[in-house]
Amino acid sequence: MSAAMLQTIADDIWGKPCLAYHVQPSLEPEAREAFAEVQRSIAERWPEPLNIGPRHGLHVTIYPLVPVKGAFDKDAYWQGIARQSQNLVEDLCADQPTLELRFSRLKVTDTAIIATATEETGLIDAIRSRIVSDIPPPPGHKPIIYDLIHSTLARYRTGASIPDEVVRRIESLPVSITAPVRQIRLVRETLFPCLTTDEIASIPLTGG
């Protein structure tokens, strides 16, 4: 394969049943609509088939407490960490004000096309750090260390070699989305990728 090509990896679990538990920020309808507009721009320019989810499935994962992949007793593990996890998030969110996720660029990876964001309060980094330090990872797993805040806008239906010119075209699309976050949520995911979820807890950000 030419060095000027990206080899993409097909998503083989899209739309399939799963079991996972996540910490996620709330997203308002206006932010979801703005993401949907970017999704349309991506689809118009990408030369291969894409999996692009509906608005209700758009999400940002702060941390997957129970990941989608992994062959362990997920129910038993979740029962063992559920209370501690909720207490940890409630403690960190106490007196925290509404935060803003500021999405400013697209990034094309070998598995997905994502929008990356920053947030100035440090709350997301704090939640991630505390989970890594305080919550034992699932059996056979290591703690996940994140260096990005992102939302996945598209996944690949097929593996393909994509010219770097196409990648640059996608990554140069303008993105300017400010997403206010008024709650941090614990959710259970049962259809990948977050096409079906249940809210376990919602912790409001009500500080000044």
How are the SSEs ordered, and which strands pair?
Blueprint: E1 5-7, E2 17-25, H1 29-45, E3 50-51, E4 63-66, H2 74-93, E5 99-108, E6 112-118, H3 123-134, E7 149-156, E8 161-163, H4 164-171, E9 177-181, E10 183-191, E11 196-204
Antiparallel strand pairs: 1-8, 2-4, 2-10, 3-7, 5-6, 5-9, 6-7, 10-11
Helix pairs in contact: 2-3
What does this structure look like?
With 208 residues, this protein is of the alpha+beta class. It has a single domain (5-204), classed as Cyclic Phosphodiesterase, Chain: A, CATH 3.90.1140. Helix content is 27%, strand content 33%. It has four helices and eleven strands. It has helices at residues 29-45, 74-93, 123-134, 164-171, and strands at residues 5-7, 17-25, 50-51, 63-66, 99-108, 112-118, 149-156, 161-163, 177-181, 183-191, 196-204. The strands form three sheets. Strands 3-7-6-5-9 form a five-stranded antiparallel β-sheet. A four-stranded antiparallel β-sheet has the order 4-2-10-11. α2 packs across α3 (123-134). The longest helix has 20 residues, at 74-93. The termini are far apart. 31% of the residues are buried.
Q: What percent strand?
A: 25-35%
Round the Cα radius of gyration to an integer and report it.
Answer: 17 Å
CATH architecture: Alpha-Beta Complex
Number of contiguous helices: 4
What structural category arises from helix and sheet content? alpha+beta
**Total number of β-strand segments?**
11
Distance between the termini: 54 Å
General shape: globular
Largest sheet: 5 strands, antiparallel
Determine the mean pLDDT. 96
Number of domains: 1
Sheet with the most strands: spatial strand order? 3-7-6-5-9
Which sequence of SSEs, written as H and E, runs from N to C? EEHEEHEEHEEHEEE
Query: Looking at CATH, which topology would you report?
Result: Cyclic Phosphodiesterase, Chain: A
Helix content: 25-40%
> CATH superfamily membership, which one?
Cyclic phosphodiesterase
Low-pLDDT windows of residues: none
